[in-house]
From TrEMBL, chain B:
<dbReference type="GO" id="GO:0006886">
    <property type="term" value="P:intracellular protein transport"/>
</dbReference>
<keyword id="KW-0813">Transport</keyword>
<keyword id="KW-0653">Protein transport</keyword>
<dbReference type="InterPro" id="IPR011012">
    <property type="entry name" value="Longin-like_dom_sf"/>
</dbReference>
<dbReference type="InterPro" id="IPR022775">
    <property type="entry name" value="AP_mu_sigma_su"/>
</dbReference>
<keyword id="KW-0472">Membrane</keyword>
<comment type="similarity">
    <text>Belongs to the adaptor complexes small subunit family.</text>
</comment>
<feature type="domain" description="AP complex mu/sigma subunit">
    <location>
        <begin position="1"/>
        <end position="129"/>
    </location>
</feature>
<dbReference type="Pfam" id="PF01217">
    <property type="entry name" value="Clat_adaptor_s"/>
</dbReference>
<dbReference type="InterPro" id="IPR016635">
    <property type="entry name" value="AP_complex_ssu"/>
</dbReference>
<protein>
    <recommendedName>
        <fullName>AP complex subunit sigma</fullName>
    </recommendedName>
</protein>
<dbReference type="GO" id="GO:0012505">
    <property type="term" value="C:endomembrane system"/>
</dbReference>
Length: 1132, 132
């Protein structure tokens, strides 16, 4: 490396010479900044530094606000302020002065002003608006330097809303005669594209012009835009492949001016850039790939191994070759190149080689075999970074045969690693491998023990959760389950008999759960022994209260029999008065259950794992409460991220026009929908399979997902047949014993360091044979191969999806409970009240409660559900049940009374006719009919008495609806058992989730007394929704015009083939929405209540959810509609 | 993409920092200190890449001058060997000039210009104007 440094230092004079220039000499060592820096360097403590800087800032503050300060002094002050802020001390008082300096200073002062602005403010800072005018002025300046500065600052930061103000000026600069101006203009447009892609859509052809610019600088600046564009849509730019290849050819051939060379390499960064673009274009595209084979070959050949920068080019080249459609001789050369990297004695190159190998093993795992000895050496490398990288590589080639060795290596590393981040990542990987490829029970449990002890409390919570779930769910063989659990129990008992205070809390929690659940499997183990061990944990100072509550819960499951009871009593007495409510609760449970064994077996059956307990995870039993609250005018629930978003949005005005590629910033999509933040949604994540984990894990290194290839494996192999054979000779057959493998290997392996002693050599070769075993046999073992389930020992039992959600353990143990949300709280509350009042009922009752509640969960407020929904209603009280049976035939009969225009003949379906009110003399029923422009509400009045009634009058009203009477046939006389009909037309005044129609009927009995009866009827907003047929263009204009909006994530029907389309179709069918257009992962949908009450939905598939953005001119409509969308999707 | 550029002296004091992704001022000091600690603790035989949290640090220690360069890439970024030949010991007292140069080279976390004469052109022009 020293030669590089040397070369670098010799190249320094260019800047050193600056120092001798008079312009900068003034600022040199005697300046105030110099004094400040020297002062700070001499200080010894942070405290002194703080004092010094505060003093400095105070004096700067005084001076900047003084009217006598010249611009020149201001500049100097600004540099000092920059320095102070750089050290982390806020100097917000100076921001406005920085803008002033940029406005008023001369060139250098202006530059410092702009610089200060770009350092101080972030892109959303409101002061940035004040800069717009200055930029505008400077862009029009005749002084090129000023134009340059303005363009530079624009390409660093600019308020997105003000882009239209300067866009024409910047565009104009694209054809400026000076290359530097053109280049900076391109970079400014690049920035615009990044922050507001829609605004520069119209100048895409100008980008092409920039790409063809005669100046290489301008051309390479335009590549930034193209890299971005091609990343987003590689299909759209395939036609440019030839151009990029031509450019690269010219660059490689050295056609650029000499000053673009860097250490004699022509424009290296430009080459890297082009190679990246090419790999994007050639990915999964044979014909495009073919165009670039030649130049890739040329690049590989030209870039000799002589300088860091050529390594970077080679690395990029290799990645490109392995990304595009493969060509055998190129692959060969690339493999050789990787070999050179890995074998290099220079540490940076080794690192690079390992990175490249890690990338490549996915396509070609056999490449690793050629370098096995080097990899083994890297495993023992003194540099932890290299070690870590090697493990990452091994992680990717793990299979059932080499898992033991690789996991061992990882655990070795974990024991010495001090970096939390690495530990968390690696622990996750070990857990994943252990679960996936476990060879036997002992190994699995012991590995997990190490994972828990080393991973401690930092590891991802889903590791212990998934481990427990694995134990709980069991596998295909009951006997295996028993053995595994038994082994776990025995292993934990011996751990607890050792020094449990050393174990991390998470591990202790796992241990207590397993002992509580399965210690009965060991017949020799007396419960009181286990209890005593557990009680020891309670007494430990280091135990957290969370752990203690796990322990208490485990004790509750175990306490039976004489000796155990006394321990339990002791413990429950101690903790029954604990200040921690959770602990007290658990202690109370322990006390009650230990005294009543009958109750205990009911509450905590030993085979609980076998029965799934149904839990209403969506809290749907609370729907009536929600809908009532909504109907009463409460605002719909918005998740925190949405509230935050709205708050931040309301501050800034968005002037961005609507486009289909609208970027919705819903980064916090993981926050699930409105349904409920239950612990069940957590526990469903807990069952998450290990592939998820691996994605998480690998994301900390290279972004490797999505580079899987799709070409046919056979064709690919055919091309490389000769190599294949060679590789097979080299690799040991997977079924041979280790010693045989060792022999075989030693005869073939290419040992790079022949000087080693024979023993260590042999050791390494043995290691190699155990590490790389099985690789050759699964010749196709890409990452895809890893996900194959065949070799997996622990195959989770197939459970029906709802069962896997329901989690009996949630109730029988506090798995995750202390951290869980409302759901558990609910249960706990009921348990505690039950325990205190009537212990024999315990929380089974709470389950009944849930069941009961879900039973009365009304399906979507449609008329059937109304009966339960409105049961609290005073008038239409739920005593409709007795009428239920006679209702059916009545229904049909009543339907015949429908007005002709609404009857079945008109083709308009009517909703179910329901009884809304009845007494001795009258039966009132109602239904509604959806017409294109309105909703018709029909009331049937039937005289059920034997005498006729007179003066029947019906009035219907609703606050949120406009009710107009179509035909009110108040019969003078309603004969016995005859029916009359009133019809009303309803339109929405103010949207609401449900509309409560209040009605009054007046009538006169023959006796002459005037009677009044009230009734009510509930209509969902759903009935008022009509499709709104608009074109995409109209949609765009409407979108901009609407002011009320809501964003939300809805569940996506991800089990369908095209989740977005399927989801939208459900909405379309259930809610009568109109799907305007679906493009890729986005879809736009429109509907209306009345033609003047439209609502637009922008739906986007994002992270497995449907991100919906609703807009409407009508307040509340988006929220109400959202509620129905959610229900529609949930009930599908 | 480059997340930030940092230059520190051998005591680990920040001499220059430039962020290309918003990081709160209050968080910067801790982040810089941790990053610098990672790099300074390494010796010459170890590679110039360090993984710190989600960052990959690429650093270089100049034996003669007292500066240490740290570039940060995010995970997705491919490896780019960045050699910075433009900086020298003058930066300590020419904070603004260094920033001007850096702005020419790196924008929005991407390397936009590496042609030495072109990078220096605006600065020399400014200096000339001021003097002339």
């Amino acid at each position: 490396m020293s030669d590089v440094v040397e070369k670098t230092l010799t190249a320094l004079p260019s800047l050193l010479s600056l120092d001798s220039q008079p312009g900068s000499a003034k600022l040199s060592t005697n300046s105030k900044l110099g004094n400040l820096i020297r002062g700070i360097t001499e200080l010894t403590s942070k405290h002194e530094e703080e004092k010094l800087i505060q003093r400095e800032l105070l004096s700067i503050k005084e001076q900047v606000s003084s009217p006598n300060t010249t611009m020149r002094q201001m500049k100097e002050l600004m540099v000092r302020t920059i320095y102070c802020e750089m050290l982390g001390y806020q100097a917000s008082f100076s921001y406005i002065h920085a803008i002033k300096l940029a406005q008023q200073g001369n060139v250098l002062e202006k530059r410092v002003g702009y610089l200060a602005v770009s350092l101080f403010l972030d892109e959303s800072h409101e002061l940035l608006l004040l800069l717009v005018n200055t930029v505008l002025k400077d862009l029009q300046s005749t002084n090129l330097i000023e134009v340059c500065m303005a363009l530079t600052v624009v390409s660093q930061m600019f308020p997105k809303d003000m882009i239209p103000a300067i866009l024409p000026l910047v565009e104009e600069k694209l054809s400026h005669s000076k290359e530097i101006i053109r280049r900076k203009a391109v970079l400014a447009l690049y920035k615009f594209y990044l922050i507001a892609p829609n605004q520069v859509q119209h100048i895409h052809n100008k980008f092409r012009k920039a790409l063809c610019d005669k100046d290489p600088g301008v051309m390479s600046a335009s590549l930034h835009i193209y890299l971005q564009l091609i990343q987003e849509n590689p299909e759209g730019y395939k036609d440019l492949t030839v151009s990029f290849v031509t450019i690269l050819k010219q660059v490689v051939a050295g056609k650029l001016p000499m000053d673009f060379n860097y250490h004699c390499v022509p424009a290296p960064w430009l080459q890297i850039h082009l190679l990246r673009i090419l790999s994007l274009l050639g990915k999964n595209d044979q014909s495009t790939s073919e165009i670039m084979y030649e130049i890739l070959d040329e690049s590989l050949r030209r870039a000799e191994m002589n300088h860091n920068i050529t390594y970077a080019i080679l690395y990029e080249c290799v990645k490109c070759i392995y990304t595009i459609h493969p060509k055998s001789d190129l692959l060969e050369k690339a493999a050789k190149c990787i070999g050179n990297f890995v074998l290099s004695s220079r540490i940076n190159l080794k690192y690079l080689g390992l990175k490249a190998l890690t990338y490549v093993v996915q396509q070609d795992p056999k490449l690793v075999l050629q370098h096995q000895m080097t990899i083994i050496e890297c495993l023992d490398h003194p540099d932890l970074i290299i070690k870590r990288e090697t493990l990452e590589l091994l992680f990717r080639i793990t299979n059932a045969q080499n898992v033991t060795v690789i996991v061992e290596k990882m655990l070795d590393f974990l024991r010495v690693s001090k970096d939390d981040h690495t530990t968390i990542d690696l622990v996750g990987k070990v857990a994943e491998l252990a679960e996936k490829y476990a060879t036997d029970n002992e190994w699995f449990i012991e590995t997990m023990n190490t994972v828990f002890s080393v991973g401690g409390d930092m590891m991802q919570p889903d590791i212990p959760n998934s481990f427990l779930k694995l134990l709980l769910d069991g596998f295909d063989s009951v006997e295996e389950d028993r053995k595994l659990r038994l082994f776990a129990v025995n292993s934990y008992i011996s751990l607890l008999q050792g020094e449990p205070s050393r174990l991390p809390q998470r591990f202790l929690q796992v241990i207590s759960w397993v002992l509580g659940e399965y210690s009965h499997l060991n017949g020799d183990l007396e419960p009181d022994v286990v209890l005593r061990l557990l009680a020891k944990l309670l007494d430990m100072k280091s135990s957290s209260s969370e752990t203690k509550s796990w322990v208490l819960m485990a004790m509750t499951k175990l306490c039976s029999g004489g000796a155990a009871l006394s321990v339990a009593r002791e413990v429950s007495e101690t903790y029954g008065s604990s200040m921690d409510t959770m602990l007290r609760q658990r202690a109370q449970e322990l006390q009650h259950l230990s005294q009543d064994s009958q109750l205990q077996t009911r509450v905590l059956p030993q085979s609980s794992s076998q029965e799934a307990v149904e839990v209403d995870s969506s809290l749907s039993f609370l729907d009536w409460f929600v809908s009532e609250a909504l109907a009463a005018g409460a605002a719909p629930y918005k998740p925190p991220h949405q509230r935050q978003e709205e708050m931040s949005r309301s501050k800034a005005l968005s002037l961005e026009p609507y486009g289909l590629s609208l970027p919705i910033s819903m980064s916090s999509c993981s926050v699930a929908d409105r349904q409920s933040p239950t612990l069940l949604s957590m526990s469903s994540g807990l069952s998450g399979d290990s592939t998820e984990l691996s994605h998480k894990g690998s994301s900390t290194t290279l972004k490797l997902d999505g580079v899987k290839r799709v070409w046919g494996r056979e064709g690919y192999l055919a091309q490389r047949e000769p190599e294949e054979e060679a590789a097979q000779v080299e690799t040991p057959a997977p079924l041979q014993s280790p010693s045989q493998q060792g022999d075989k290997d030693s005869s073939h392996s290419q040992a790079p360091t022949p000087t080693q002693t024979p023993e260590s050599e042999q050791e390494k070769q043995q290691l190699a044979s155990s590490l790389f075993v099985g690789l050759a046999s699964q010749s196709s073992a890409s990452l895809m191969g890893k996900s194959e389930q065949t070799s997996q020992r622990f195959r989770r039992k197939a459970r029906s999806p709802d069962k896997s959600l329901s989690s009996s353990e949630q109730l029988t143990n506090p798995l995750g409970s202390p951290s869980s949300g409302a759901d558990n709280l609910l249960l706990d509350c009921s348990i505690s009240s039950e325990l205190v009042s009537a212990p024999e009922q315990t929380h089974l009752q709470s389950l009944d409660l849930t069941a009961a509640n879900s039973a009365c969960d009304a399906p979507d407020g449609d008329t059937k559900g109304r009966k339960t929904l409105s049961r609290d209603d005073s008038v239409s009280a739920a005593d409709v049940t007795p009428h239920e049976d006679p209702d059916r035939p009545k229904d049909l009969r009543l339907a015949s009374y429908l007005p002709a225009e609404l009857s079945g003949l008109s083709g308009l379906p009517h909703s179910e006719i329901t009884l809304v009110c009845s007494n001795q003399s009258l039966d009132l029923s109602a239904c509604h009919v959806q017409k294109d422009d309105s909703l018709e509400f029909v009331v049937f009045i039937k005289n059920s008495s034997d005498t006729s009634v007179h003066q029947v009058q019906v009035q219907v009203s609703c606050e949120e609806l406009e009710v107009s009477c179509v035909c009110d046939s108040p019969a003078e006389e309603l004969k016995s058992h005859s029916v009359t009909v009133c019809q009303y037309r309803l339109t929405v005044k103010r949207p609401s989730v449900y509309f409560e129609l209040a009605g009054v009927v007046h009538y006169q009995l023959p006796a002459g007394s005037l009677q009044t009866e009230q009734f009510s009827h509930k209509l969902p907003l759903k009935s008022f929704i009509r499709p709104l047929a608009v074109s995409t263009e109209d949609y765009g204009t409407m979108w901009l015009a609407f002011s009320h909006d809501t964003k939300q994530n809805l569940p996506l029907l991800s089990d369908e083939q095209e989740p977005l389309t399927a989801t939208l179709n459900v909405l379309k069918k259930k809610l009568q929405l109109h799907v305007v257009e679906i493009i890729g992962k986005e879809g736009i949908v429109a509907c209306c209540l009345r033609p003047d009450q439209p609502c637009l939905l922008h739906c986007r598939e994002h992270a497995g959810m449907l991100a919906v953005w609703l807009r409407s001119p009508v307040p509340d409509l988006p929220d109400c509609l959202l509620y129905h969308c959610q229900r529609a999707l949930r009930e599908r | 993409m480059i997340k930030f550029v940092l230059m520190v002296n051998q005591q680990g004091q920040t001499r220059l920092s430039r962020y290309y992704e918003p990081v709160e001022l209050s968080r910067r000091a801790a982040l810089e200190a941790a990053a610098v600690r990672c790099c300074l603790s390494r010796n010459k035989d170890q590679c110039s890449f360090v993984e710190y949290k989600d960052f990959r640090l690429v650093y270089r220690q100049y034996a003669l001058s007292v500066f240490l360069l740290i570039f940060m890439f995010n995970i997705k970024s491919n490896f780019v060997e960045v050699l910075d030949k433009y900086f020298s010991r003058v930066i300590m007292f020419n904070l603004d000039s260094v920033h001007v140069i850096l702005d020419e080279m790196i924008q929005n976390g991407h390397i936009v210009e590496t042609n030495k004469s072109r990078v220096l052109a605006p600065l020399t022009a400014i200096n000339k104007m001021v003097d002339g």
